[in-house]
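Minutes, project check-in
Item: structure for the 345-residue chain
Input as provided by the requester:
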Amino acid sequence: MALRVARDASFAAAAFARTGHVDDALDVLRFLARVQEDDGSFHARYLPDGSGVPDDRGLQSDGVGWVLWAADVVLAEAPADDRAAVAAVLRPLVDACADHALSLLAEASLPPASSDYWEVEPTSLTLGTAGPLLAGLEAAADFYRLAGADAPSDRPAVVPALAVDPGSATGEATRAADAALAATRARQGAAVGAAGRLRAAVEGAFGDQGYPRHVTGGARDASTAFVLPPFQPEPLDGAHDAWLASVREMLRPAGGLAPGAGWREDGISWTPQTALYALAAASSSDPDDRADAREWLRWLDEHRTASGAIPEKVLADGSPAAVAPLSWSSALVVLALVELEDAPR
């Protein structure tokens, strides 16, 4: 049974949008809006029809960040003439996600611990939770900008008292437009402020230790990519070096990557993390990184199944395992290819 994951669906929406399929991307995000909890959060997984969850894994905070990031990608890719309509469709989803992300930071500079892409109960806060939330807040700020927060007002800041009859339809429409603009600007300001505080907190708590998986220290994992473009406007301080170091630490015999340096030593390469590093490399301004992205993509291409799908895992001998098509890996490959295509030559 093909379960739906907020993270995987978000990346699929971004891949649809980046390849010109904005309507398909909106369909994916509409599904997420339908299953979203009242407080804006998401469960780890959903049944394909959205009727419920398949297990008791519970809520995962990273989903909120990924949905915000995807929504911003979709709005940015929408044709200019359609952008207002797309923003209107996405606005309830984005507002709810942003409110939840802000609530996670209401009492501390870092969010509470939550399960992440490892799908295990956390012993402490992970970069796999903090990184996506930061990406989401940065994306929320940009979404509200694109939705009109930075647009100049159509009227002077001070309107003569008799210029608009407050009781007229025009007056009511003007007040509604002013209120909507003020709300959008307030939300953008809240997202910008929270992103700045969280960025500083992540750089201090994780970055000073070389960006380990856990805030308490230890080995790195693939979430070092979450604090780099395309998820962040700029790499966090020291993140690029940590990301490069993590490649050596996570490399597996067949040539792909494990989910983390502390992952079990079973020799298995995981395509989601390998494709994630392809995307991070493709999004880098460093030509050497972009060359590495092509190598990661070549490796993924060479280890597809007989049907052409990207498997979830590749065994130490190079044979595919868990061969059902995986949307996260596929979306990451598409996004990496688009980044390489857009990169200056």
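Outcome recorded: The CA atoms of residues 270 and 313 lie 5 Å apart.
No further action items on this chain.
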